[in-house]
Structures are given as structure tokens and as C-alpha cells.
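Lab manual, section 2.4: Encoding a predicted structure.

Procedure: take the sequence of the chain (240 residues), apply the prediction step described in section 2.3, and record the output as C-alpha cells. A sample record is shown.
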Amino acid sequence: MRDLPWRRLHGVLLSLVGASATCWLALTDRLALYIHPRYVVFTAIMSVVALALIVASFAVRPADSHEEERPRGRRSAIAGAALVVAAVVALLVAPPSTLSEATAQQRKVNQTLSSTPMTSPDGTDFAHFRLRDWAAAIQLAADPGVLKGRPFDGTGFVSPVDGKHPDVFYLTRFVVTCCAVDAQPVGVPVYEPDWRAHHKKGSWVHVTGALGADPGDASASLVIPKTVDPISEPSQPYEH
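Recorded output:
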């Protein structure tokens, strides 16, 4: 392999790490933790193409490669090497992780729900509601009585509502439109007195019960649970 200028070599190595990590995530069915499933095949193919081009680049020298490269300082060399090592650790060594409860608090739960009020349950298929559908229905129902008594069955992680509702937590999931960067948290309020004694923030639970009026605000709806069971994080934690 011909010698490559240090700056170019660092760029090539970083590209190699990124493309390799993407291919590895695709092969292990974890790429959907970062992007919408509809983009997985396209992204995997482009990563393979990128790997081929990166490997080919080692055999190609820039037109001015005959010129002597300027001497590099020790600090510059160390910084470049550290950047490559950090990329390897972050993308190839560290296990993939999902968006956390802290991210949900930062992005604010239910900030991106539709603004169309739900006025009637007629024609609504509650049996196939996802968490995002329940969150929208609860927040946007013109009359809480529309949802009263409706059976609920959902899975998500626990996140606090706010200081004014100590006995209510959000059953939360992220909704991914394109990738994890644009993921928005949606949550269904669940009434469970002293829930902090039973569930840690960010822990995953499966909740069954029915919709009812908020004991602290009769004009609002929430889930009155029958069961709140701890579970492991599902293989696909996001909704799309």
C-alpha cells in the first residue's frame, strides 16, 4: 500500500470505521435503532458501496502527492490518532443504545401530537391503537367521556409527568420519522400512587387497564391500571 498523507489517512480511516459500523449494525438487525426501518436496506447498500470506494482509495494518490508533505507536530498526530480511536470505540466497540428517558424529558413528551380534536369514537379501531394513537386521543379528546372505560394495553418506559402530578407517570415511547435525531417522545398518562417506589425512571413496563378521569382533574383522561408489570426493553423500542 502506498503511503498516504496523514490528514488524508485519518479521513479514510474515519470513513472506514463509519461504513463498517453501519454494515455491522445492518447485519445484526440493530440499524433500526438509529434510522427508520424503511431506510435500512438502502443505507446498508450505500455502506457496502462506500466500503468498496474506501478500500480503492488506498491505491489512489492525489495528483500533487509527489510534493513533500509538511512535517506534522506531535500534538497534531496525537489528536488525529485519538479521533480515530474514539470513533472505533463509539461505533464498533460500545454496544448500540436506544434513546433514554433523559432524552424524552429534554425533547418534552407529546409536544408534536396532531392538533385535530377527537370528538367521537365512531369508526375508531381502538383495538389496534399504538401508544402514539392513545397519546393523541387522550390529549386531544374534546370530551373525556369519549374515552372513559376504553380498555388499554400498552408497553413503554416510565417517565415522570411533572411536579404537579406525583401519582402519574407517562408510559412513553419514541416515534421515529426518519432517524433517531428527529425522534419525538409520546406518552400516555398512567395513574399509580407512589409509582416511584415501584418503578425507576426509564424502566420498561407493560400496562393493562382502562381509560378514566384524572382524580386530580376531571376534565382530563388517563389510564387507571389493572396491572403494571416490569419487562425487558423490547428488540424494537420505537414506533414508526
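Check your result against the sample. The longest helix spans residues 6-27.
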